[in-house]
Amino acid sequence: MTLDEETIAGLEREFAVFVRQDRAASGQLGREVHPDLKVAAYRLLAHLAERGPRRPTELACHVGVTAPTVSRQLQHLEELGLISRVQTLDDGRAYLVRLTEAGHRRVEEVRVARSRRLDKLLGSWAEEEIRTFAELLARFNGSAAAPPPRQCGGEG
């Protein structure tokens, strides 16, 4: 199926608006976790909350940054008391990153705030419309998922 240029242009505009609004909202919600927290660092916290302790290399692959970049972000999160490092059992040199109790609490606070925001945004929608939107968005995200630009060792 080939879409006409006007349809594609409209879709691109709407995606751009969505991404801008989501980044702004995520930035605000991230600052609610901690005033010094950056959006990218919040994504790391959310991934740890969802998946549990992870190696820094897996976190770098998940957010699409280099190991030194994720290392700086993790150091900042550790200084804020939101994560801690734990040694792995199989390799004394390696470590996993996990949320602290404060990190779990803060991520949950943001999850609740995001849910409230979505509830307000979709308050006038019928439940079936919301369900359909979620299904279509999941379908789109599934088809848009591309392999990472660099090898991530099958993690992510």
Automatic annotation (TrEMBL):
Protein name: MarR family transcriptional regulator
Organism of provenance: Amycolatopsis eburnea
Top-level taxon of origin: Bacteria
Keyword hit for Metal-binding: no
Keywords for this protein: DNA-binding, Transcription, Transcription regulation
Annotated GO biological process: response to stress
GO molecular function: DNA binding; DNA-binding transcription factor activity
TM ranges: none
Residues annotated as domain HTH marR-type: 1-142
SUPFAM superfamilies documented for this protein: Winged helix' DNA-binding domain
